[in-house]
Amino acid sequence: MMKKTVLLLVLFLGTLALGMAQCKENDFLDQPYIEVTGTAMMEVVPDEIYVKIILREKDQRGKTELEQQEKKLFQTLQKVGIDVKKDLAVRNMAGNRYKLKSGAMKLRKEYVLLLHDVNTLDRVFAGLEQMGGVEAEVGRVDHSQIEKLRREVKEDAIKVAKEKATGLAAAIGQSIKEAIYIREEHWGGMAAQYMSNVALDAGRGSADAGVDFEKIKLQGTVLVRFKLWYK
C-alpha cells in the first residue's frame, strides 16, 4: 500500500511539473505581443580554393616514374610561390592503386592544393600546363571565416526584425519592449560558383585563364516576438 501511495505521488508531481512547464511556455500568449521575421544577406569573396591534382603512372615503370612526376610537381609549384609543405597534401592514399581491365596495375596519386586567390590559381594552372602529364581541377571554394560570417548574418537578421517590429508597432500607437521569443527560422547559404570551367587535363594540355568566382552568398532569417505596450 505504501509503495502504491508513493508511486501515485510521484505521478502526480510529474504531471503537475509538466503542466507548470507548459503554462510557462505559453505565458507569452496571455500578453500583447508582435511577431515578425527578419532576414539578412551577405556576399563574400572566397579566400580558400581547393585544387585537386592527379598524377598517373603511364608506362608501368613502377614507383620510380611516379616519384619523378611528384618531384617535378613540387618544383613546379615552388616556382610559382607555393609552400608545398604547408598547402599541399596527399588525398586518399587508399586509392593510389587501381586495376585496368587488362589486369595491369598502375599507380595513381592524388593531392589537394589550398590556394587563397584567383591570381595564384592562374599561376598554378599555367605552371601545371607547362609541366604536362598532370590532371587538375578546382574541387571547391570556401571562406576561412565562414562561421563568423554566419553569426554576423544572424545578428543582422535579428536587428532587421527589431526595426520592423518598431515601425509596425508605432503605426498603431504602441512600442515594443523586450523580446520574449526568438527562433532561427531559416539558414541558407550558397557556395561560390565558378565563372568558368577550371580544369587542366593531360589529354588536352590547356587551362582556362583569367577565371573568377562568384561571391559566396549567405542568408539568415529569424522569427522574433516582442512585448507590446502603449506609449
Describe this structure in words.
By secondary structure, the protein is an alpha+beta fold. Helix content is 36%, strand content 35%. It has helices spanning 2-25, 63-79, 84-87, 118-131, 146-170, and strands at residues 33-44, 48-56, 88-91, 97-99, 105-115, 134-142, 174-190, 199-200, 216-230. Helix 2 packs across helix 4. The model is unreliable at 6-10 and 191-210 (pLDDT under 50).
Which features would summarize this protein structure in a list?
231 residues; six-stranded antiparallel beta sheet; three-stranded antiparallel beta sheet; 36% helix; rod-shaped
The residue ranges in which pLDDT falls below 50 over 5 or more consecutive positions are 6-10, 191-210
Total strands: the figure is: 9
Q: Helical segment tally? A: 5
Average residue-wise pLDDT: 78
Order of helices and strands: HEEHHEEEHEHEEE
Query: What is the gyration radius calculated from CA atoms?
Result: 30 Å
Q: In percent, how helical is the residue content?
A: 25-40%
Structural class: alpha+beta
Strand content: 35-45%
Shape category: rod-shaped
Give me a quick take on this structure.
The chain is of the alpha+beta class and 231 residues long.
Secondary structure blueprint with pairings:
Elements: H1 2-25, E1 33-44, E2 48-56, H2 63-79, H3 84-87, E3 88-91, E4 97-99, E5 105-115, H4 118-131, E6 134-142, H5 146-170, E7 174-190, E8 199-200, E9 216-230
Antiparallel strand pairs: 1-9, 2-5, 2-6, 3-5, 4-5, 6-8, 7-9
Helix pairs in contact: 2-4
